[in-house]
Design brief:
Layout (H helix, E strand, L loop, with lengths): L9 H13 L2 E2 H9 L6 H14 L2 E4 L6 E4 L3 H15 L5 H11 L4 H17 L1
């Protein structure tokens, strides 16, 4: 299975978020971050990261006693894949329904709305 086709699970996404923000981390560092927001056993985190390595989601540097992990897949590519899958599977192919649902479920900040307007203007100007 190529890494481009691997869809991370929810737990794997939590680990990837940590690796994307830290750039690299040991299992202990990832576990400590996860433990701040949820109940997670160290061995569960270790097993998940081993599975992620086998799936090609992360790289592992085993040159020292403490293995250091880095994300093998980019945040941008992962977001694109997941959003594309969500639009197809949940919103029946309608990107506008996804956007309306996202904006209707929480209040966007002025900065977020400005970014959305700028992006929409950019899309309009390309046509």
């Amino acid at each position: 299975m190529s890494k481009e086709n691997v869809k991370p699970t929810e737990s794997e996404m939590e680990i990837l978020q940590i690796l994307w923000s830290k750039r690299e981390a040991s299992v202990r560092e990832v576990h400590e971050e996860l433990a701040k927001s949820k109940e997670a056993g160290y061995t569960t985190t270790l097993k998940l990261m081993q599975i992620m390595y086998e799936k090609g989601l992360v790289n592992r540097d085993a040159s020292s006693k403490t293995h250091i992990y880095t994300a093998r897949i980019s945040r941008d590519q992962t977001e694109k894949q997941l959003v594309s899958k969500m639009i197809s599977n949940i919103f029946n192919g309608s990107a506008s329904r996804l956007v309306m649902q996202a904006l209707g479920n929480r209040t966007a900040s002025k900065q977020e709305l400005d970014e959305i307007r700028a992006y929409l203007n950019e899309l309009e100007n390309k046509k």
